[in-house]
Task: structure prediction
Amino acid sequence: DGDSPRQHPKRKTRAIQMPATRAFTGTDPSRAKGTLKAKALVLAVKEYARGFSLQNTINDANAVAKRLTEIGFDVHVISDETIGQRVTQKLVKKYLREFVDEVDHDTVAAFAFMGHGAEFHGRHYLLGYEMVEDPAALPDEAVSHQELLGRIEKKQPLCTLAFLDCCREDAEGKRGAVFDKEGLATLPGPQ
Result:
């Protein structure tokens, strides 16, 4: 949820450091004949409807963006602060579409989301400002992280990295902006 993950009693954080060149070991050299591109989109949603705010999403996004830049990524940060307005579902979809359009077979793609999420029928959704009221509307109104990864993988990048720093509410059979479970469930891959 972007709020002090180091202080959450149920979370364990493990840091892994490796030189950027190690990430490409084992990659078929014939795939990297063109110019290698490392592109990243970091999305942070701080403000949510009804006054709900995740105070640390901006700091977390900036820290991730800084580290990705240090290891050679071209990073685009989208947040309430960088665009000067609320990060709505429409804007989340727009920036994700633009990011996916930039990915190709010579790209190392990294995507990070800091904000609120929900689960419905085994799919995990990333939520913009509006917070989806009706769980059945999630597939139409929110972004499924599995579908996003699937769209990226169809572009056949060299590597895809996804960082999700969000709580995951179980919306199964629930109605309302806030549901009753917290924490991340197992996240399936692209579909």
